[in-house]
Design brief:
Blueprint lengths: L5 H13 L5 H4 L9 E5 L6 E2 L6 E4 L6 E6 L2 E2 L5 E2 L3 E5 L1 H6 L4 H7 E6 L10 E3 L2 E2 L5 E5 L9 E7 L6 E9 L9 E8 L13 E13 L16 E5 L11 E11 L5 E7 L10 E3 L5 E8 L5 E6 L5 E12 L5 E12 L22 E5 L9 E9 L5 E7 L10 E3 L5 E8 L5 E6 L5 E11 L4 E12 L12 E5 L13 E11 L5 E7 L16 E3 L5 E8 L15 E5 L5 E11 L2
Parallel strand pairs: 3-14
Antiparallel strand pairs: 1-2, 1-4, 4-12, 5-6, 7-11, 7-13, 8-9, 8-12, 10-11, 13-14, 15-22, 16-21, 17-20, 17-22, 18-19, 18-21, 23-30, 24-29, 25-28, 25-30, 26-27, 26-29, 31-38, 32-37, 33-36, 33-38, 34-35, 34-37
Amino acid sequence: MRTTNRALAATAGALLLSGLLPFQSALADTQQLPKLWNFCTNGSGGSLFDPAEKPVTVPGGEDAGSGCWINFSIPDSGTTWTATDLQLTLAAESVAASGYSPQQLARMLQVRTNYEATEWGDDWTVHHWTVTPDGALTLTIPACTTNCSGVFLQLSGAPRERDVVLKAEIKATGPGYDPAPMPMSFDYFGRAGTKPVTFGTPGTFVPVTPTRLLDTRSGAGAPAAKIGAGETANVRIAGRAGVPAEGVTAVVLNVTATNATAGSYVTAHAHGTFRPTASNINFTAGQTTPNQVTVPVGADGTVNLYNFAGTVDLIADISGYYLAGDSGQRFTGVSPKRLLDTRDPWLNPTTPTRPFGPVGAGGTINLDVAKSYPEAKAVTLNVTATNPTAGSYVTAYPHGTTRPTASNLNFTAGQTVPNQVTVPVGADGTVDLYNFAGTVDLVADISGYYSATGSKFVPTGPTRVLDTREAPGTPLGEHDELDIQPNSWKFGIPPFGVTGVTMNVTATGGTAASHLSAHPSSGCDRYQGMWPQYSNLNFTAGQTIANAVTGQVPALNYCGLNKWADAVTIYNHAGSVDVIADVSGYFLQD
C-alpha cells in the first residue's frame, strides 16, 4: 500500500523511549525561555538533519513526501510537560516565486500531523493553509491535549513542472516559549513536462426530490428522438428543478438507457470539456439499464451524455447537486450496512398494513433512516431488486412527499439489479421505496449520508484508478479482493484528508454469475471466510455492467508488516471477473 517515511518515525520513537532525545531548552539556563528542537529526514531511509541547515525535500507527486519531528513539549521541571501551538509560515516572496498563486499553492502543498513518536498513529490531522494579506501561507498546529512530547509533521506536494525553494519558519505561540521562529526551507521538486493537478471547487450537497430533466422518448429536455451512434445529448442543469443558475459544481443524476438497438455505452461529462474514455452505463440491445452518475457541470450549466453505438433513448432524473460554499450538506461515509432486506424478517419493517415479504404491485415500503442516522438529511443507498415476478421499476423518494415520476431501478422478471440511490430523507427521517408492477424483494445497503457535519465534495470528472485487464493483468478470482488507493497524486487526488470517493465500477468478462462488494479497507485482517453479505454490483457470466459506488476511504492505520489501511477494497464472490473503476470526485476534510 502507501509508501511512507519510516526512518524519522522509528528514530524519534527510539530516542524518546531511550530518553536520549536532546532538547535545546536543556542547553539553556533556567532563566532562558525554552526553545523548540527539530529534526527531519528526506524520504524513507534518509539520514536525520537540522532543517535550519538543509532544505526538507518535497518531491512533487510523491504521496508520502518527507517529514519532521518537532519537540514542542519542553520539560519545565523534572516531570511536567507543557504543550504549545505551533505556527508554520511560508514566506510571501517564496510563494510569489513558486509560479502559482497563493491559493493554488495552498492546495498543492499538503501538511498533516500526529502526536505520536511513530508515523503509524491513528490521530492524523490534515491542516489547511491560510493566505495572509501579503501573500504568505500560514497554518496552525494545535497543541496536543494528552501527555505527548512533540508532533510528527509530514508534507506532500502535488506534481509540478519546475523546482522551487520555499523559505519557511516555525515557531511556538504558547506562553513561556521563546517567540523566536526556527528557520526552515522546503525544496519542492518538479519534473519538466509534468501535467499539473487541476483542483475542482469544493462544494456541499443540496438534495432535491427526484425530478426528470431529460427524456428523449417524450421530448422533455431535448428533442423527441433517440441519440445516435457517436451523438451527444446536452442536458441543462442550472436554473431547472430548483437548481440555481450559478455556483453549481456537480450534479447527481440517475441516467437510464432504454430501447437500445445495439450494445453500447454512455459517458457523462461536463459540457465544454474533452470527453473521457470512461463509461457510466453499459447495455445490450433491448436492455433497460439505469446508473447513478455524479458529474461536473460545465461553465454554461450543462452536462453531456454521449452514446457510443446504435441508437438509444436516454432519461435523466436529478436527485441533488453540489454548490460551491457551505450552504449545503456535508458527506459522512460509513462501512456498508444493510438497512433493509424483505427476504429477512429481521431487516423487513413489517407493519399491520404490510406483512413480511416482497413488495407488491403499487406497494411501498418505508425505510427508517433516522433510527440509525438521526442527523441525516439525505442518504446514499445501494438498492437491489431481486426475485421480481414481472418487469417493473422502483422509485425512491422522501416519505411525506408526492411520489415523483422518476425511477431508480428498472428490471425484468427474474432479474437481479442493483443501483446506487441518493435520496432526501423525509421530515420524519424515513424514505419510501415504491414498486410499480408484480412483486419484488428489495435490499438496501447504506454507504453514507449527508448532514451539517462531514466532508465537502470535489469533482474530478472520470479518472481511471483500476483496470485489471491492464494491471495486474489478471481478473479478480473467486472470494478474492484487491485494494484501490484512489487518494493519490497520480490520479490528481490529494493523498491527505480524503475521506471518501465517488466511483463508477464496471464488471466485465465474468466467468460465472457473481457480485462485487466495495468497502473501506480492513487493513491486515481480511474476512477469513466471513465474506461481505452485501453487494454493489450483480452480474451474469459474460455480462458487462456498471454501478456507481460511493466508498469511504478510511484514515491511515498501520497494522504491521508494512501494511497500511487507507484504501477501498473490492471483493468478488464467484468465478473470475475483470474490474474497472473510474473516480468522479472525492470528499475532503476542511
